[in-house]
Amino acid sequence: MSVDAIAVEAHRASTPAPTGGPETDTQIALAGTTVELRPSGALFWHDRSLLCVGDLHLGRAERIVREGGDLLPPFETIDTLDRLETEIVASAPRLVVCLGDSFDDLAAARNLSEQVLVRIGRLAAGRRWVWVAGSHDPGPVELPGSHLAELRLGLLNFRHIALPRLAPGAGEVSAHYHPKARLTRRGTRIARRCFLADEHRVILPTFGSYTGGLDAGDAAFDALLAPTALAFLLGTGVTAVARDKLG
Is the pLDDT of residue 16 over 70? Predict the structure, then answer.
């Protein structure tokens, strides 16, 4: 199918785009507030000056080699931090929330190089930083910031794995599933990382390098998202496609 004719206006928030931000970002209404979905896979909440990313999986190459897997170029951590720094410079957040699986396991967190530790410290300096516990990194990490099971701000709950049910009026931002959308465009089959969202939930794509993804049409999402949910595909901009129209 073609994505060109699919409208997204009904799901956009009514507030204008922020000054100074990329024109390709997408703002959506979420549980009575407005959040911005960025082409990098990060979410920005302007009202709280909050930047949120999911599934960094820092140290993934090291963990795979440690467990006897294939030798991968050990650059994914630097690449991930490069892209995260770009988002931090662009948005200047007062709060950064990493939504779990920030490290490929707790040993990977302990084995980060001094260069990486210094860089994380520099990125965290002067702002609040929250590491939300994930399935790969459930324990505390000895890094700048706070380690929480989840974070609640107003009506929005930030957690690693989406809950089956939400309290009336509540909203949720989660990660874990690494959603990826597949469709055909101009006769070519493509797959893109994507956000999945309805009026009450946003599921973030993986932000880390060397990570796979779960098809956005998978049944795992059926119980979490409304039938009207959209997939927001990442590229040079953010392209919205009705989830039920994905190929």
Answer: no
